[in-house]
């Protein structure tokens, strides 16, 4: 009998990884088997990583106004900060910080359309601590400054359902929109 991988607590001939919830893959594991096959613990499969990444993304969607940083989000996803950042970018096509700022700008647009808060109040309301970086990011994503966006009339969208307005007004980085331009 040989011991199983560190932490699995199994001792059996052939390691008994299948009983521990592992699957056979073609390569890339420290647990070789006869015939060139390898075994990888299920907890490291891409599907389980996506579930954990989704948990962190849901936290960003829910708690966008809270002070969130990559190490805190990585803890939510049960990953190291570096692995979390790489995995998040691979899965969603943008960094965790970029995703969080997009959510914050999306919410800021809704608050600015209401018109009852100043740009500084909106900045603080959505969780940004620096008015300068908020304004820069807002201008980058929306194409105009927060003040200009607030001053512009937004009455034409008052009859549009909120779910449609959210999709149509979602911030899009310059050059990312491959389709027709928004009205």
Automatic annotation (TrEMBL):
<dbReference type="GO" id="GO:0043565">
    <property type="term" value="F:sequence-specific DNA binding"/>
</dbReference>
<keyword id="KW-0238">DNA-binding</keyword>
<keyword id="KW-0804">Transcription</keyword>
<dbReference type="GO" id="GO:0003700">
    <property type="term" value="F:DNA-binding transcription factor activity"/>
</dbReference>
<protein>
    <recommendedName>
        <fullName>HTH araC/xylS-type domain-containing protein</fullName>
    </recommendedName>
</protein>
<dbReference type="InterPro" id="IPR009057">
    <property type="entry name" value="Homeodomain-like_sf"/>
</dbReference>
<feature type="domain" description="HTH araC/xylS-type">
    <location>
        <begin position="54"/>
        <end position="152"/>
    </location>
</feature>
<dbReference type="InterPro" id="IPR050204">
    <property type="entry name" value="AraC_XylS_family_regulators"/>
</dbReference>
<dbReference type="InterPro" id="IPR018060">
    <property type="entry name" value="HTH_AraC"/>
</dbReference>
<dbReference type="Pfam" id="PF12833">
    <property type="entry name" value="HTH_18"/>
</dbReference>
<keyword id="KW-0805">Transcription regulation</keyword>
